[in-house]
């Protein structure tokens, strides 16, 4: 899901790869965004990290509501 959001925000896998300085082939091999790329993908797409990888990052707004 997070990868689809990032690709939609970037326009194409090729555009996302260019923004990240990696090959389109590298992006096409992702099943989900690698943890070492999450912050960069967030920066270039504007998609929050908790949406890119909800398995590792929680939504700060929802965690504040719980506290």
Report on this model:
It is a single chain. By secondary structure, this protein is an all-alpha fold. It has a single domain, classed as 434 Repressor (Amino-terminal Domain). The protein is built from 6 helices and no strands. The longest helix is centred in the N-terminal third of the chain and has 9 residues, at 2-10. It is globular and about 35 Å long. 19% of the residues are buried.
Number of domains: 1
How much β-strand is present in the residues? under 5%
Taken in chain order, the helices and strands follow as: HHHHHH
User: Over all CA atoms, what is the radius of gyration?
Assistant: 12 Å
CATH superfamily: lambda repressor-like DNA-binding domains
Mean pLDDT level: 92
Taking the sheet with the most strands, its summary is: none
> Count the strands?
0
CATH C-level class is Mainly Alpha
- Overall 3D form: globular
Distance between the termini: 27 Å
Overall helicity: 55-70%
- The CATH topology: 434 Repressor (Amino-terminal Domain)
The helix tally amounts to: 6
Low-confidence stretches: none
Structural category = mainly alpha
Q: Please state the second-level CATH architecture.
A: Orthogonal Bundle
Quick description:
With 67 residues, the protein is mainly alpha-helical. 61% of the residues lie in helices and 0% in strands.
């Amino acid at each position: 899901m997070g990868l689809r959001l990032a690709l939609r925000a970037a326009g194409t896998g090729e555009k996302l790869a260019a923004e990240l300085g990696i090959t389109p082939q590298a992006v096409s091999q992702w099943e989900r965004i690698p943890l070492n790329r999450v912050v960069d993908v967030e920066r270039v797409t504007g998609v929050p990290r908790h949406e890119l990888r909800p398995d590792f990052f929680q939504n700060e707004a929802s965690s504040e509501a719980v506290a």
